[in-house]
Design brief:
This protein is α/β, with parallel strands linked by helices. It has 29 helices and 20 strands. Strands 13-12-11-14-15-16-17-18 form an eight-stranded mixed β-sheet, with helices on both faces. Helix 12 links the parallel strand 11 and strand 12. Helix 21 runs antiparallel to helix 23 and helix 27 packs across helix 28.
Length: 722
C-alpha cells in the first residue's frame, strides 16, 4: 500500500517522501532551482523527514534517496549562501548544521540507499557518504567528487572524515586535493559506490537493495570508526610519507598561495585517528575560517562570474540560438584538430577540411588521438569509442558543408587567405549557417568584408591547447546578427567551454590585456633583469607560468607578429623593445624549434635558461630586481589595460573581463580577475601605484580614465558582498 507523507500545502517542496510497503522513497526536486543543492531550505525539509523516520512513522523499514532532476542528484552546497558568511562563526555554524543533518541520516535505525543519477558533488557526495549503501548509474552525467578546494574551502559536512575512513587516505586525499570527479564505474572501483546500474533500473535496484539490507540478507560496507581501511596506511612511517608527499605536491602546484589544500591536510591528519565527532569539529572550524578568507571570496567570485558568463550571451534582444548538431572546420592544423575533437566529444558531427589529403589525414589523426585518450580516461566501452571517433570525418572538398549548422575557419593568420576561404565557404553553403573565424589578431569586421552574408560572420577565438583551455572568446563586429551571437555562445557552452562575448577591436580582450604585460617583460629583459627572475616573480604572484616561458610557449615569431599589430594600434603604451625581433632574427622561435629563452631537450622538455640568448638580444643580465617591483610593473600594466577595454566598450561587463583573464591567460584565480583585484585592493590604491609608475617610466602607465573616476567617487566594479 502506498502513502504520501506530504501535506497538500507542501506540493512545492524540495523534498518529498512516499511510502510503499515499508519502503520510503525520498525524492529530491527543488522547484526553485535547475539543480538540487544543499541549501538552508533543503536542510530544513530533510531534517523534518528524518524526524519522522526517527519516530518510526508508518512502519518504514528502509529508505531510498533519489533525485527527480535529470543529470543531477545533489550538485553541492548553495554557494549563494556563502555571501552571507560575514564571520568565521557564521560559516562554522553552517558547517555544523550540515554535519548534524547528515549525522542524523547516518544514525537512522533503518538502512538508507543513495540512488545516484547525475552529479553528486561536494555536499551531494557528503550526503551519499552518510547513507548505508550507494548505487550510481553508468550515465556519463553521473559524477562524484569533493571539489571544495577549488572554491578556497574544504568539505564541511563530514567529507574530510568519512571519505578517508571509507576508501583510504591516499585515494581520499587525491580526490579532495585535486577536485577530481569520478564517473560511476571509477567511483565503484575506488570504493565510493557499491554498485553501478543503468539509469532506467536505478530505483527498482535501489529499492530491492534497501529491503535486503533491512532484512539483513545483504550487508553494507561501512567506513572505519578511526584510521584508514588500508592497513599499511595506518603504519606511522607510511602515514608520514603520504602526508609529506601530499604537502609537497600542494606546494609544487600552488606555491602556498591557496590556504585550503594545506588546511585540508591538517584536518585529515589530525582527525583520522580520533573519534569522528572530534574530526567533524576540526572540519567545521577550518571550514569557518577558510570561508571568509580573501582567497575563498575571490574563488567564489570566479565561480559566479563564470557561471553567469555561460548562461548569458549579453544580448539586448531575445534572439534564440540555432541548435548545433553538425559543424565543419576548415584548416586541419593543431587548432583545427583541437576544435574538431572538442566538438566530437560533445556529440557533434564534424567535417574536417584541409587543402591536401595528407594534411586532412594528419588533422584527423591528431583529433582522434585526443579523443581516444579522453575516452580511455573515462573508461568508455569499445563501441562507444568507435562511435566517438567516427564523428570526425576528413575531407579536401566542401562536400557536406551545407548540412552544417556552424563552420569554423581555422586557417593561417593571413587576411587574404581567410577572405578566400570565407568566399569558398559561402559558395558551398546556404543561408542560416554561422561562420566563425578562429583568429587571434585580425579584426572580425575586416574578415566580414569578404562575406556576402556579413551578419553571419563572428569571431570564435579558441586558446591553445584547445582540449585544456576552458575559454572561448566570441567576437562580434557591428553587423553581427544577434542569433549568430546566441548560436556561437550556445555552441561554446555545449562543448564544455566558458564563453565571453566581446566587441571587435585590436587584440579583442584577452590578447589586448596580455600585450602590455608581455611588452613590459621585454623591456625588463632589456634592462638586464634575468629571465628566471621575471618568471619566478610572476609565478609567485600566481600565474601558472612566467612571461618569459610564455614567450617560448606561444612562439617568438607569433609574439613578434602580435606585438607589431598591437604596437600599431596603441603606440603610446605598447611599443616594445626590439628584443623579440633580434631573437627571431637569430633563429630563436621558442619551444617549437627547441631554441628560445630557455633550453629544450630532444623531446621538447624545458630546461634551464639559455645563457647564450642574452648575447642574441644584446643585454647581459646586470641587475637584480625585487620580485615586488616586477609584479607591480607587469601586473598593473595588465590590470590597467583591462579597465581601458571596459571604458572603450570592448568588454560588455567587468564580469566577462574577470572570466576572460582567469580562464584565458591564467590571471591568478585567488585574486579573482583584474576587476575584482581593483575592488579588493581599492581603486584609489591602484591609481596611486599607477601614478607612481607613470612618474618613473612614462605614459605607458598612465591610469585609465575610468579608474580615476572610480577612485574619485569611491565606486566598485562589483557590489559590496557580491
Amino acid at each position: 500500500m502506498a502513502t504520501m507523507l506530504d501535506e497538500p500545502t507542501q506540493t512545492a517542496s524540495a523534498v518529498r517522501m512516499e511510502i510503499t510497503d515499508g519502503l520510503a522513497v525520498i525524492r529530491l526536486n527543488d522547484p526553485s532551482r535547475p539543480v538540487n543543492v544543499i541549501s538552508a531550505g533543503l536542510l530544513a525539509e530533510m531534517t523534518a523527514i528524518l524526524e519522522r523516520l526517527e519516530d518510526g512513522e508508518a512502519g518504514v523499514r528502509a529508505a531510498v534517496i533519489i533525485s527527480e532532476k535529470k543529470g543531477t542528484w545533489i550538485a553541492g552546497a548553495d554557494i549563494e549562501e556563502f555571501k552571507h558568511f560575514l564571520t568565521p562563526a557564521d560559516a562554522e555554524a553552517a558547517s555544523r548544521a550540515g554535519q548534524e543533518m547528515l549525522n542524523r541520516l547516518e544514525r537512522l535505525d533503518i538502512p538508507v540507499v543513495a540512488a545516484i543519477d547525475g552529479a553528486a558533488l561536494g555536499g551531494g557526495l557528503e550526503t551519499a557518504l552518510a547513507c548505508s549503501y550507494r548505487i550510481a548509474t553508468d550515465s556519463p552525467k553521473t559524477k562524484l567528487g569533493l571539489p571544495e578546494v577549488q572554491l578556497g574551502i574544504i568539505p564541511g559536512a563530514g567529507g574530510t572524515q568519512r571519505l578517508p575512513r571509507l576508501i583510504g587516505l591516499r585515494a581520499a586525499l587525491d580526490l579532495m586535493l585535486t577536485g577530481k570527479q569520478l564517473d560511476g564505474r571509477r567511483a565503484m572501483k575506488t570504493g565510493i559506490v557499491d554498485e553501478v546500474v543503468p539509469a532506467p533500473v536505478l530505483l527498482s535496484v535501489a529499492s530491492r537493495v534497501a529491503l535486503e539490507l533491512a532484512d539483513r540478507t545483504r550487508q553494507a560496507k561501512a567506513g572505519r570508526a578511526t584510521g584508514s581501511p588500508e592497513r599499511l596506511e595506518n603504519l606511522l612511517p607510511m602515514r608520514r610519507l603520504i602526508f609529506s608527499k601530499a604537502r609537497q605536491g600542494v606546494m609544487d602546484k600552488t606555491k602556498g598561495l591557496y590556504p585550503a589544500p594545506l588546511r585540508l591536510l591538517r584536518v585529515v591528519e589530525r582527525g583520522i585517528d580520533k573519534p569522528i565527532e572530534q574530526g567533524f569539529a576540526l572540519e567545521a572550524q577550518a571550514f569557518g575560517e577558510l570561508a571568509v578568507t580573501p582567497e575563498a571570496r575571490s574563488l567564489v567570485h570566479v565561480f559566479f562570474t563564470s557561471t553567469a558568463a555561460k548562461n548569458d550571451p549579453g544580448l539586448q534582444s531575445q534572439a534564440k540560438p540555432k541548435h548545433v548538431d553538425q559543424i565543419a572546420v576548415v584548416g586541419a592544423g593543431f587548432m583545427g584538430a583541437g576544435i574538431a575533437a572538442a566538438s566530437a566529444e560533445s556529440g557533434i558531427r564534424v567535417r574536417l577540411k584541409d587543402v591536401k589529403l595528407e594534411a586532412a589525414a594528419k588533422g584527423l589523426k591528431t583529433a582522434r588521438q585526443s579523443l581516444k585518450k579522453r575516452a580511455e580516461r573515462k573508461r568508455m566501452k569499445k563501441f562507444e569509442v568507435t562511435k566517438l571517433l567516427d564523428r570526425v570525418q576528413p575531407t579536401t572538398e566542401y562536400t557536406g558543408f551545407a548540412a552544417s549548422d556552424l563552420i569554423v575557419e581555422a586557417v593561417f593568420e593571413d587576411l587574404e587567405l581567410k577572405h578566400r576561404v570565407i568566399r569558398e565557404i559561402e559558395a558551398a553553403t546556404r543561408e542560416g549557417i554561422v561562420l566563425g573565424s578562429n583568429t587571434s589578431t585580425i579584426p572580425i569586421a575586416r574578415l566580414a568584408e569578404a562575406a556576402s552574408r556579413p551578419d553571419h560572420v563572428i569571431g570564435l577565438h579558441f586558446f591553445s591547447p584547445v582540449e585544456k583551455m576552458p575559454l572561448v572568446e566570441i567576437i562580434t563586429h557591428a553587423g553581427t546578427a544577434d542569433w549568430v551571437t546566441a548560436t556561437a555562445h550556445a555552441y561554446a557552452k555545449k562543448i564544455g567551454k566558458t564563453p565571453i562575448v566581446v566587441n571587435d577591436a585590436p587584440g579583442f580582450y584577452v590578447n589586448r590585456i596580455l600585450s602590455p604585460y608581455m611588452a613590459e617583460t621585454a623591456l625588463l629583459l632589456q634592462e638586464g633583469v634575468r629571465m628566471e627572475e621575471l618568471d619566478e616573480a610572476m609565478t609567485e604572484w600566481g600565474f601558472p607560468v612566467g612571461p618569459v616561458t610564455l614567450y617560448d610557449e606561444v612562439g617568438l615569431d607569433v609574439a613578434q607578429k602580435a606585438g607589431k599589430i598591437m604596437a600599431a594600434a596603441f603606440a603610446n603604451r605598447m611599443t616594445p623593445s626590439d628584443l623579440i625581433d633580434r631573437m627571431v632574427a637569430g633563429g630563436r622561435l621558442g619551444r617549437k624549434n627547441a631554441k628560445g629563452f630557455y633550453r629544450y631537450d630532444g623531446d621538447g622538455k624545458k630546461g634551464g635558461p639559455d645563457e647564450s640568448a642574452y648575447a642574441v638580444f644584446g643585454t647581459p643580465p646586470k641587475k637584480t630586481m625585487p620580485a615586488e617591483e616586477i609584479q607591480e610593473r607587469l601586473g598593473l600594466a595588465m590590470v590597467n589595460e583591462a579597465v581601458r577595454t571596459l571604458e572603450e566598450g570592448v568588454l560588455r561587463s567587468a564580469r566577462d573581463g574577470d572570466v576572460g583573464a582567469v580562464f584565458g591567460i591564467g590571471f591568478p584565480p585567488f585574486r579573482g580577475g583584474p576587476f575584482w583585484f581593483v575592488d579588493t585592493t581599492g581603486a584609489a590604491e591602484v591609481l596611486r601605484r599607477l601614478r607612481a609608475l607613470e612618474q618613473r617610466f612614462g605614459g605607458r602607465f598612465a591610469p585609465a580614465r575610468m579608474l580615476e573616476e572610480m577612485a574619485a567617487d569611491g565606486r566598485r566594479f562589483f557590489p559590496e558582498g557580491a
